[in-house]
TrEMBL record:
Highest classification ranks of the organism: Bacteria, Pseudomonadati, Pseudomonadota, Alphaproteobacteria, Rhodobacterales
Annotated function: Required for dimerization of active 70S ribosomes into 100S ribosomes in stationary phase; 100S ribosomes are translationally inactive and sometimes present during exponential growth.
A GO CC term attached to the entry: cytosolic small ribosomal subunit
Subcellular localization(s) per the UniProt record: Cytoplasm
Protein known as: Ribosome hibernation promoting factor
Oligomer status and interactors: Interacts with 100S ribosomes.
Gene name of the record: hpf
GO MF annotation list: ribosomal small subunit binding
HAMAP family from the UniProt entry: HPF (MF_00839)
Family, per entry: Belongs to the HPF/YfiA ribosome-associated protein family. Long HPF subfamily.
């Protein structure tokens, strides 16, 4: 597994890097068979240290956790505890649904755009074309609906676009204001 351990405007020593690799390796090893890479970022927020960890698994799932504490090691330990809890819950879900994925998730290429916010909403725009602030490529995973919901929850994202393994069409799952999950399947909806 590849580790990328960095600090935002703080120095990360060898001892902390070794601690992160050992502890995170144990947490991930308990629940995930084939992790591909982990990115851990340490930063300061006022008087607290913040640790953010993102782990990519070969099944296509991405787990994210964040911990805060006054001490940097305690911040990492809080983050690792949240990651452990998250991975334990999702492994239990996968076991309960008997969804063993033999092959890694298939990914398709797509473009992702960030549009500028309309600062002058009271004035009439010169053109109806939005201003593109950033353009980047992204991957669209091929998942079942249940896996897509798990991926969205693991990433703490409000929405996930995915290719439905069953129908082959592009689908969307999203978190509704009432707390439930919505699913848009244009292939069956007319």
């Amino acid at each position: 597994m590849r580790y990328q351990i960095t600090g935002k405007q703080i120095d990360i020593g060898e001892a902390l890097q070794t601690h992160v690799k050992t502890e995170l390796g144990e947490v991930i090893g308990k629940y995930a068979g084939r992790p591909t890479d982990a990115m851990v970022v340490f930063s300061k927020s006022a008087h607290e240290n913040v640790c953010e960890a993102t782990v990519h698994l070969s099944t296509g799932l991405t787990a994210q956790a964040k911990g805060k504490a006054v001490e940097i090691y305690a911040a990492f330990d809080a983050c690792a505890e949240k990651m452990d809890k998250q991975l334990r819950r999702y492994k239990r879900r996968l076991k309960d649904h008997h969804q063993d994925r033999a092959q890694p998730v298939e990914l398709s290429g797509a473009a992702s755009y960030i549009l500028a916010a309309d600062d002058e909403s009271l004035e009439e725009p010169d053109s109806l074309a939005p201003v593109i602030v950033a353009e980047m490529s992204t991957k669209i995973p091929s998942l079942s609906v249940g896996e897509a919901v798990m991926q969205m929850e693991l990433a703490s994202a409000p929405v996930l676009v995915f290719k439905n393994e069953k129908s082959g069409g592009v689908n969307v799952v999203y978190r509704r204001d009432d707390g439930n999950v919505g699913w848009i399947d244009p292939a069956t909806g007319t």
